[in-house]
Amino acid sequence: MKKLFKILLLALAPTLALGQNRFPKPDFESGYQYPDFNYSVPDERLWSIIDIVLLAVMMGIVAYAVLKQRKRIPVFVVSIISILYFGFFRNGCVCSIGSIQNVTFSFVDTSYVIPLTVFLMFILPIFFTFLFGRVFCAGVCPFGALQELVNVKNFRLSKAVSAVLSIIPWIYLVFAILYAVTRSQFIICRFDPFIGIFRLGGDFGMIAFGGLLLVASVFTGRPFCRFLCPYGALLSLFARFSIKQIVITPSCINCDLCLHACPVDAIRPPYENKVKENRTAGVKRLLAYLVLLPVATLTGALLLHSASDSLSSANKDVRLYEQVMQNEENPQNVQPVDVEVFFSQEGRIDELTSRVASIRGTFRTYSTIAGALIGLVIGFSLINLSLKRSRKTYEIDRTACVACGRCFSYCPQNQQTTDKK
Amino acid sequence: MNNPISRKQFLQICGTVATGTAIVSVSGFSVRRMMRDEADHFWQIDPSKCTFCGRCETDCVLSVSAVKCIHANKVCGYCDLCGGYYRANVKDLNTAAENLMCPTGAIVRKYIEDPYFEYTIDENLCNGCGKCAKGCNSFGNGSLYLQVKQELCKNCNECKISKVCPAGAIQRVPANKAYMLKDA
Fold first, then answer.
1. pLDDT at residue A205 is higher than 70
2. Cystine design at A20: which of A166, A415, B94, B142 (Cβ 3.0–4.6 Å)?
3. What is the ipTM of this complex?
4. Are residues A343 and A374 in the same domain?
């Protein structure tokens, strides 16, 4: 009996393996030859080398222009090249902003191996920022370049508004990493406002949003970079500790012109002319904020911990699970395609349940951390606002400065300094 | 060290060292992984998982999807009554549009010899809806199937279709295995 079963299995094996060979291969008598299809694969190697070389060279040019020459024109030229090449020609994928997620993803998912070009897209701008400040943002990033080139008038937002809005990039960064770590989604790519413009087509909502941002950036400097870009937030961290950075012209005459030329509010005026605050009041406020820091961290952690289940619905498996559960409750309803496919592929509900439970578990852990980080960012930005500075001259806030070089031509002393060199 | 400037400088140096170390360690870790394995560059559909749900047609970021039907001639049975060419239960077997499966008329049928017919896909017309592939897989050998065409694919950082594919058939593949073909 066993033998018979084995023979039967052996006989069936080929059909089982091929699955659907319902009709035998035809024997052609007319000498018919199978057509030969060659599916061409675009050779990306050359282009990716050009990408990386151009990225590095353009960042080098910007660094040289703003640190040594103190001129804006090279930055302007780089911006145009970047929009044309990285934007419209290469269509913006993979960009440095999105590569945060690839790097995070490659750390948690052992089956995903990050391509070298993507990793270089991620690390090169960080490295250059570490050396020279945010030279990538200046014009090498096509998004920044696009906003920079349309910027005509520079209406300033009040300090309070921009301080609050500047927290958004950090929250965005934390959420992007959260969703990449849990292998759910690449939200930076999903909600990319400019890719539709560069590709001349795409999701209508996102293109409309990108258009709005562009209109806004005509009147105020770089709204996306300042109030949305998660990579900018990351770079500002490295720019804070950069080895070199742009400085105010040494022979500054306190004329205040550069302050009004800066599109990103990166130039800080001296404190001299201001009425000094009572010292004890300042200390008290700082102490209060220092106490608030752990409270904010804890609150953030608790808030996102409690919201982790609803956050987890961004995961495909969790969504499927919810649909399957709905279907189990109302079996008379028409099955959605996802549920139908799930059952047709012999998916088992208990397996799915345990998988979703583990996904939700990781979501709980990571969203707690994410909440704590967001609380920490809010706490730190409060502390940063209330720190007492003793500035006697104009200074450049290196975290905010995007090295666009607009201030150079406004500085009456800059020309002399560069001429002397 | 009581001088506030030197304290600031000290903190600055500490920060520089810390961020520098972070850059080096992240690079080191990633480069070691990249040396060991082959990197994933492209998106492909695993034909054995695909269920022809039709979302490839509607969810690609391109207005006409980069997913096209591919025909594996070596798997095909060259049937006269083709499940991918004709709709099920049609009255007459002729090339009238109401009888054909393909909504854009992208399948070209050519007589070879009795009783065999060759089917070819006109990729300029194909919209990747997968109706023919569904028919072929239900009634025939499954030689018609959907695949991401690399010369059309924008190679998005995260394929938008992969997020809605009910079968989880869309996956990343290394550059040297850029096509998952049925007859390869």
1. yes
2. B142
3. 0.88
4. yes
Of how many residues is chain B composed? 184
Domain count, chain A: 2
Place of tokens 């001349």: A200
Q: Which residue of B has its CA nearest to A314?
A: B163
Residue of A nearest to B140 (CA): A22
Question: Which of A21, A95, A114 has its CB closest to that of B141?
Answer: A21
- B33 has a pLDDT exceeding 90: no
What are the chain A neighbours of B151 within 8 Å (beta carbons)?
A: 40-42
> Does residue A95 lie in a domain region?
yes
Same domain for A260 and A305: no
Q: At what angle do helices A142-150 and A204-219 cross, to 10 degrees?
A: 50
A341/B51 Cβ within 8 A: yes
CB–CB contacts below 8 A, A to B = 152
Beta strands in A197-306 (DSSP E): 267-268
In this structure, of A129-143, A350-364, B49-63, B80-94, the range with the lowest mean pLDDT score is B80-94
* Per-residue burial over A370-401, b = 16 or more CB atoms within 10 Å of its CB, e = otherwise: bbbbbbbbbbbebeeeeeeeeeeebbbbbbbb
Same domain, A118 and A52: yes
Domain identity same for A194 and A317: no
Chain A residue with Cα closest to B151: A42
Give the position of tokens 């009004």.
Answer: A260
User: Do A208 and A289 share a structural domain?
Assistant: no
The reply to whether A186 falls in a domain is yes
Cβ-Cβ contacts under 8 Å, A127 against chain B: 23
Q: Do A345 and A369 fall within a single domain?
A: yes
- Mean pLDDT, residues A11-28: 62
Interchain CB distance below 8 Å, B23 and A126: yes
Residues A178 and A145 in one domain: yes
The verdict on B8 touching A (C-beta cutoff 8 Å) is no
In a domain, A7, yes or no: no
Task: Provide the residue range defining the domain that includes A361.
Answer: 279-385
pLDDT (tens digit, 9 = 90+) per residue, B92-137?
A: 888 888 899 999 999 999 998 888 999 999 999 999 999 999 999 9
Q: pLDDT confidence of A387, banded at 50, 70, 90?
A: confident
The label of the residue with tokens 């809010």 reads A378
Q: Which residue of B has its CA nearest to A96?
A: B157
Could you tell me the residue ranges of all domains in chain B? Answer: 1-37, 40-177
